[in-house]
Design goal:
With about 325 residues, chain A is α/β, with parallel strands linked by helices. Chain A has ten helices and twelve strands. An eight-stranded mixed beta sheet of chain A has the order 6-7-8-3-9-10-12-11, with helices on both faces. The chains are: A alpha/beta (about 325), B alpha/beta (about 325).
Chain lengths: ~325, ~325
């Protein structure tokens, strides 16, 4: 199976506010490092889940993969560098807030076929709005509606329909269930997993909702302060988290079963600011098992099993 | 059991034609944590605002909300104002909007104590002690900060401190952890659990998150379409849900499903229109057990001293 998308040594820096002070002060242009040393491989017909707290660089990763943020490192879509690939036609993005990613002044039917206009697809090769909507389980009458007339779940489906218009090979979904009620978030996840199975689409799902990721993703990558800390098959990682951060994230998830109430606190403190990235292992300030060495040497991502990597000095 | 701090009897709230809350009765005793759980549109936020008398002027409330025996619905607005922040306090979902952005935290925490017969220095000392109690590092420094200088988790801690400043008999928390990352959520849940030990009042938590209920609450009220459809202890509700909606809601929670599921359960159908709610059971249209009888208003079936459900099909 050849890779649909390869990321090798991805690094993203953003310039820090070009205020007067930084212009006068010596030392040249200041930048803030967001992501570094990120390696990921995504195959067709597979869902890769990217997990982390706010500020861990999840959304920046998605933007860099779509060429929306300047990035260093090797990014290859379907075996070609981004500039030489058909990235725009072959990928689609589902944004976190479906209603604000739809135009309030266009009917649903117009929005879902807009990608054809943008890419100059000849009329004969276009799919009708009704057909696109039926793929996501919406009735054709929905085409005449405006976004404000849709429920949260319907707006989410319209975004999926639009994302599918050009038959993309890769769909990046940023928090696909955010803001949805429990009784309908399953609908959206079932829709995505059906599309993965039937059309062989590769999905990158970004979420901080661990129970959702556990069901939706085949493999997961966990980010902490812009560094990969663990990757592996979802079931393996949940069954035996190798990195202490992964273990604390899983343990922090509140359990709906009152008989399984936990009484200790899995993780203390907050994710530090990117401006004050701790030296050595970025997680050592909150890590329950840190040793002095962790504050000195940053751990490298290393393989600890088939399809399993971890960046921790102490993990085995 | 001592007299309940909060006793709501047959409360209904309408906004014009919309019947947001329909005949809700509930109670909360001293030292108890009560959860109100439901999906968007079930009326839980309207109920929360009603409990502290903060519904917009367009809302019409009927029924009784007794706090320490005094009826909030029958009171004048001036009497309600005297109660708010003193005997009843609220923690909102978004702590950023709960504070004034142009005053320091210290100035606001001192203002919140305007009814206490203390000097300003004493109030400031009490504020610092309360901030230390909720786990803000360096409380003296925090008093001089503005809200935007605090992180999301610290803001929510400060909001809880503000609400507890006057030792209210009733603390209402509306989605207190929804805006937070899972690691911060775990810490806030841990804090609320600690506070209940030395807090002499009742706590009412409004949430859509079954994990929050499981970790924190003693008893739960499940709301659907403006009504309480089931009430019980957390154990009764989670391990022996009797109303079909409660059972369906729990089974939809991805955290509840142990093994990875390709297809997640959902509740098909939509909420009924609350401008014209059905005369019978509001859930009948989506219920797998519904019979012709369900067109009649469902009885409240008492299952134990603490457990009751609003359903034709439930047997004691």
């Amino acid at each position: 199976m050849s890779a649909l998308y390869e990321v090798r040594g991805l690094r993203v820096d953003v310039p820090l506010g070009g205020g007067l002070l930084s212009a006068i002060l010596p030392g040249g242009k200041k930048t803030l490092n967001i992501l570094d040393g990120v390696d990921l491989t995504l195959h067709s017909g597979e869902t890769l889940g990217v997990v982390g707290e706010s500020g861990s660089g999840k959304t920046t990763l998605a933007r860099a993969m779509l060429g929306l943020t300047p990035a260093a490192g090797t990014l290859q879509f379907q075996g070609r560098d981004l500039a030489a690939s058909n990235l725009r036609r072959g990928t689609a993005m589902m944004f976190q807030d479906p209603v604000s990613s739809l135009s309030p002044r266009m009917r649903v039917g117009e929005q879902v076929v807009e990608p054809f206009t943008i890419h100059g697809i000849p009329a004969a090769e276009r799919t009708s709005a009704a057909e696109l909507l039926s793929r996501v389980g919406l009735p054709p009458e929905m085409a005449a509606r405006y976004p404000h007339e849709l429920s949260g779940g319907q707006a989410r489906r319209v975004c999926v329909a639009r994302a599918l218009a050009l038959n993309p090979a890769l769909v990046i979904a940023d928090e696909p269930t955010a803001g949805l009620d429990m009784s309908i978030q399953g609908e959206v996840l079932n829709l995505l997993s059906g599309l993965k199975r039937d059309r062989g689409i590769g999905f990158l799902v970004i979420s901080h909702n661990l129970p959702v990721i556990r069901h939706a993703a085949d493999r997961i990558a966990i980010l902490y302060l812009g560094r990969l800390v663990e990757t592996g098959l979802t079931a393996d990682v949940f069954a035996r988290p190798a990195h202490p951060y992964t273990a604390s994230l899983i343990a922090a998830e509140p359990n709906p079963d009152p008989r399984k109430r936990r009484d200790d606190l899995a993780i203390k403190g907050e994710i530090p600011s990117l401006l004050r990235r701790p030296a050595g292992c970025a997680f050592h300030t909150r890590c329950p098992i840190a040793v002095p060495d962790c504050a000195l040497r940053p751990p490298a991502l290393r393989a600890i099993g088939p399809d399993r990597q971890v960046a921790c000095h102490l993990a085995t | 059991m001592s007299d309940p701090v909060l006793q709501v009897r047959d409360l209904s709230v309408r906004y014009g034609p919309v019947q947001a809350v329909r005949g809700v009765s509930l109670s909360a005793a001293r030292g108890e944590v009560v959860g109100i759980v439901g999906e968007s549109g079930c009326g839980k936020s309207t109920l929360a605002s009603a409990l502290i008398g903060l519904n917009p002027p367009s809302a019409r409330a009927t029924g009784q909300i007794a706090i320490e025996g005094r009826d909030l619905v029958a009171m004048t607005e001036a009497e309600r104002r005297a109660l708010r922040g003193d005997r009843v306090a609220m923690v909102f979902q978004d702590p950023m909007t709960a504070f004034n952005p142009v005053l320091t935290l210290g100035a606001q925490l001192v203002d919140f104590q305007h009814r206490a017969p203390l000097t300003k220095a004493e109030k400031r000392a009490r504020a610092a002690a309360m901030l230390a109690r909720v786990g803000l590092p360096d409380p003296e420094l925090a008093l001089t900060r503005y809200v935007h200088e605090l992180s999301g988790g610290m803001r929510q801690r400060a909001a809880i401190a503000a609400a507890l400043m006057m030792q209210p008999a009733l603390l209402i928390a509306d989605e207190p952890t929804t805006a937070l990352d899972v690691t911060m959520e775990a810490q806030i849940l841990h804090l609320l659990r600690e506070l209940r030990r030395d807090h002499d009042g009742a706590i009412v938590i409004i949430t859509h998150h079954l994990g929050v209920v499981g970790e924190l609450c003693d008893r739960v009220y499940v709301m659907y379409a403006g009504q309480v459809v089931e009430e019980g202890t957390v154990d009764e509700i989670y391990h022996d849900p009797r109303h079909p909606y409660t059972a369906a809601l729990i089974s939809c929670d991805p955290a509840h499903i142990a093994d990875r599921a390709e297809v997640l359960p959902t509740i098909p159908g939509r909420l009924p229109d609350l401008t014209d709610p059905p005369a019978g059971c509001a859930f009948a249209a989506r219920c797998t057990l519904a019979t012709q009888r369900c067109a009649e208003p469902p009885p409240r079936v008492v299952l134990s001293a603490t457990h009751a459900a609003l359903c034709h099909e439930v047997r004691p």
